[in-house]
């Protein structure tokens, strides 16, 4: 097993990988609660979506671990489940069964693009400075999510965002968890993020801020209400509205996953010569999970940026993903326990991991404006637009423009020019 996952080469161990897997799972576990809540607003059965969410995470995480040997967790994407419910089903009035068909078709297209290595080629031709900007930008983005979930920053009509209420007990719990995890991290404790979350969850229950679970084991909800519904409306995918939906699923998922993969590979030290080894296999795993997940009854899956918390805990191989998969399998039976993993418990981990990922910006050549401006916009727009894909798109538009302005067109791969035009078209479509 250690030979298969190349433990010695990547300087890791069973214990280190197991702690990393548990850390990532705890950071991702909220998806089992949140995804059913969001998709149920489209009319889907909560219980069925819970089971579909867990099964798609089990299959996707296991595939990416075994095929690519990357420490990544796969689960339904938070951005795309909201798009599925609020834009497609509620906004456009499309039944959830038909919307699932759109997810299924986009997943099939993903698989084809992965097998043809088109997705891998696109990722590998991205300039290295933009790769570092994407990794750093995702760090700022997930730190922003962590600050929001902790209540440390809140919405404000006058200033958009403002400091949170430090009198709130749950915010103080998040602050306690944050400080505790910082102390453990800077002292070099392996698995510091995991231990911080566990200690904070226990503390929250002891002082009454987190409800103690009424029971430990629960029955697995049936998949019957959602299973196979994708095939009921396959003839409706060729309408203009559904083609637009499929394109949007394809676009956002492509670059959300590409961004996460770049960030994670860079953080784990797996990137070689500006390329990601086995990227094609990793992309095939996440696209296959989307196809399977849509059949089971959930929206588009993606590589989760929360995987970076496991990497910060020492995850370096696919064995971390195997542990993540096993945890989701166990969670099917112990769903009542998931309630103790609240946003206040997990948010400090996201802030600290965001800080670790933001260190990638030191590799950007800030001394050259033609690089600094596209990189800065990429980083800045991820948290400000609450979208990894939007930050990437804007950076991909500006980078070729700055190079053309300096009459250095040959330094940019033709694919980057194609993407620049495609992204311009995408923003015109959104307008």
Write the SSE topology:
Elements: H1 14-28, H2 31-40, H3 46-68, E1 74-76, H4 78-91, H5 96-115, H6 118-125, H7 128-150, E2 153-156, E3 160-163, H8 169-186, H9 192-206, H10 240-267, H11 279-296, E4 301-303, H12 307-312, H13 318-331, H14 343-358, H15 369-385, H16 388-405, H17 414-430
Antiparallel strand pairs: 1-4, 2-3
Helix pairs in contact: 1-9, 1-13, 2-3, 2-4, 3-11, 3-13, 5-10, 5-11, 7-10, 7-14, 7-15, 7-16, 8-9, 8-14, 9-14, 10-16, 15-16, 16-17
Pfam families: Xan_ur_permease
Transmembrane segments: 20-42, 48-67, 100-118, 130-154, 166-186, 193-210, 242-264, 313-334, 340-359, 371-400, 412-430
Main location: membrane
Structure notes:
Strands 1-4 form a two-stranded antiparallel ribbon. It has helices at 14-28, 31-40, 46-68, 78-91, 96-115, 118-125, 128-150, 169-186, 192-206, 240-267, 279-296, 307-312, 318-331, 343-358, 369-385, 388-405, 414-430, and strands spanning 74-76, 153-156, 160-163, 301-303. The longest helix has 28 residues, at 240-267. The chain is mostly helical. The protein has 17 helices and four strands.
Summed up, what is this model?
65% of the residues lie in helices and 3% in strands. It is mainly alpha-helical. The longest helix is centred in the middle third of the chain and has 28 residues, at 240-267.
């Amino acid at each position: 097993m250690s030979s298969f996952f190349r433990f010695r080469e990547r300087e890791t161990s069973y214990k280190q990988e197991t702690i990393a897997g548990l850390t990532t799972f705890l950071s991702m576990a909220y998806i089992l609660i949140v995804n059913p809540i969001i998709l149920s607003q489209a009319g889907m059965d909560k219980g069925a979506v819970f089971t579909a969410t867990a099964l798609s995470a089990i299959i996707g995480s296991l595939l990416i671990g075994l095929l690519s040997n990357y420490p990544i967790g796969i689960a339904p994407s938070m951005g795309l489940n909201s798009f599925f419910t609020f834009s497609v089903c509620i906004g456009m009035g499309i039944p959830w069964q038909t919307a699932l068909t759109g997810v299924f078709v986009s997943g099939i297209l993903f698989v084809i693009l992965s097998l043809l290595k088109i997705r891998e080629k696109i990722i590998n031709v991205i300039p290295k400075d933009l790769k570092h900007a994407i990794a750093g930008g995702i760090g700022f983005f997930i730190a922003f999510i962590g600050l929001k979930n902790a209540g440390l920053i809140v919405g404000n009509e006058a200033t958009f965002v403002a400091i949170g209420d430090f009198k709130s007990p749950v915010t103080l719990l998040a602050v306690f968890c944050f400080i505790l995890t910082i102390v453990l991290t800077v002292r070099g404790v392996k698995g510091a993020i995991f231990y911080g979350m566990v200690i904070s969850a226990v503390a929250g229950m002891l002082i009454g801020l987190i409800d103690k679970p009424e029971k430990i084991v629960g029955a697995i909800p049936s998949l019957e209400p959602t299973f196979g519904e994708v095939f009921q409306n396959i003839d409706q995918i060729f309408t203009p509205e559904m083609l637009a939906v499929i394109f949007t699923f394809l676009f956002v998922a492509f670059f959300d996953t590409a961004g996460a993969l770049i960030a994670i590979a860079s953080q784990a030290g797996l990137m070689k010569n500006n390329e990601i080894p086995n990227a094609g296999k990793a992309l095939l795993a996440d696209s296959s999970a989307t196809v399977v997940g849509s059949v089971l009854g959930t929206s588009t899956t993606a590589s989760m940026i929360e995987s970076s918390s496991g990497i910060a805990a020492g995850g370096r191989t696919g064995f971390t993903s195997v542990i993540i998969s096993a945890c989701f399998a166990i969670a099917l039976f112990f769903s009542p326990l998931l309630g103790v993993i609240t946003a206040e418990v997990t948010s400090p981990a996201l802030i600290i991991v965001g800080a670790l990922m933001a260190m990638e910006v030191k590799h950007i050549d800030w001394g050259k404006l033609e690089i600094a401006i596209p990189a800065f916009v990429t980083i800045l727009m991820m948290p400000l637009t609450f979208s990894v894909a939007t930050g990437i798109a804007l950076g991909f538009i500006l980078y070729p423009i700055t190079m053309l302005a300096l009459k250095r067109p040959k330094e940019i791969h033709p694919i980057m020019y194609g993407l620049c035009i495609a992204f311009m078209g995408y923003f015109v479509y959104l307008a």
